[in-house]
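Technical note accompanying the year-one report. For the benefit of new consortium partners, we illustrate the data format agreed upon in the data management plan: each record pairs a sequence with a C-alpha cell string. No post-processing was applied to the example shown here.
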Amino acid sequence: MTEKFKISHPSLGPINDSMLTRESWKIFQIMAEFVEGFERLAKIRPSVSIFGSARTPVDHPYYKLTEEIARELSDAGFSVVTGGGPGIMEAGNKGAYEGKSPSIGLNIQLPFEQSGNQYQDIGLSFRHFFSRKVMFVKYAAAYVVMPGGFGTLDELAEILTLVQTQKTRKIPIILVHKPFWDGLLEWFKDTLASEKMIDIEDLDLIQIIESPKDIAAAIFNHYEKHGFEPSEEEKEVMLDL
C-alpha cells in the first residue's frame, strides 16, 4: 500500500492491511445475505410485513391480537413476514403458521433478546440490519405495525421515508391500537407538519385500524385500485431499493 492510502488517526495509529482486507471481505458476506434473501423470498408474494415489540409476553392482549391478524391475513392469501424473534414477531409467525399461507422469519443476530421462534416455514438469518430491512420492504404488499420500541419505530420511519420520497411504491401502512400511537401521530401533526418538516398530506400515508378483518379489507381495497403486481415503472424504482 502506498503512503497515499495509509490512513491514520492520533488515537488509533495507522490502519493496517489486514484490517482493510477484513473490511473488504465483509462485502461478500453482505452480498450472500442479499442473494439468499432474493432467492428464497421472490415467490412469497403477496406478503404483509408485521412489526412489533420482541418484549411482548405471550399472555398480553397485543400478542393475541397479532396472532389473530396474522391468521386472518394468512387465510386471505398473504404470506406473513416478521423479524422472526419472540413477542409480537412470534405471534405474527404463529398466526400465519396456523393459516393457509407461508410464515416467514427474517432473524437478526443480536447479543441479546433475539432468538428465532418455532413458527417459521421460511427462516433467514441476517448479521446486518440494512440487508434485512431491504427484505422487509422489497416484497411487502402492506406493513402492519403493532406497538413496539425503537426497532418498530425504525421500520415505520423506513417505510414512510421510502414511500414519501417515491423510492418504493405506495403500500398500505397500518398502525394497530390507536391509544398507543395517538401521541406520536399528534406530534407528527402538531410539530413535524406545523414546522414544515413534512407535508400535512404525508399523514395520509398512515391508517389506524383495529380489527383483523378490517385490516385485511383495507389491504384488498388498496389493491383493487392498484393491482398486487407492481407496474413496470414501479419495478424499476424498486430495483434501486
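Partners are asked to follow this layout when depositing records. DSSP finds eight helices and nine strands in the chain.
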